[in-house]
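Onboarding guide, step 5: your first structure request.
Type a short instruction followed by the sequence, for example:

Predict the 3D structure of this protein.
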Amino acid sequence: MSKKGQIGLGIGLGTGGVPGLAVVGWMGSTAATAIEGITAHVAGPLVTVRVASSFTPGTAYFHWWEDGIYVGVTRVPERTFIVEPGQQIRVSVQDTTDPGYDVVANAPTVLPRRRVLSWVRSTATDVASYEVLQQVDGGQFARIGTVPVVAGQWAYEFLTDVVPDLSAVVWAVRAVDEAGLQGATVATSSEAVVRSPDAPDYVISYAANRVTFTEVS
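The system replies with structure tokens like these:
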């Protein structure tokens, strides 16, 4: 049985297009890890992630995930991602010599950057739409979307924008009738959003238009 490894890297670019403070890394929990290190080369919005593997070159398959979503396989130990200024992504990679590797069963456990909110319709007959609200760290509720009522539809869903990290977030849904009057609000309990794990130590080297982060072994 071929061994497999997993490693991950969180990447963030500041609004000036240079690496921000959200550069973090972590090891996966798989046994018999073949991946021995990871580096990220930043050139503008292009971030090339490269891993070091103990597998013989040319024998391994490298499977990549961005924010928990599978984005493909490479036979070389690197892949380039686009990270716009102010954006953060989390990259996970697993290496294996198994050409039939099950990427669904072995997908990394990563908290999603967005949430899917689900609810059932109001029993009131004059509801025209539902307002979706979000509260961050005990502040004021802000409307983040509106979902129109569909005749005969019982269940509704809403995909949020990127959830603010390291925050306490509450979501709510409020019915609005045909006259624009707001009805009762139903809210979730507060959720502590933590997507940024503790960061290991890195050595940072600078070159023309490139910054390299190498994890300290």
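Each response can be followed by summary notes, for example: The chain has no helices and 17 strands.
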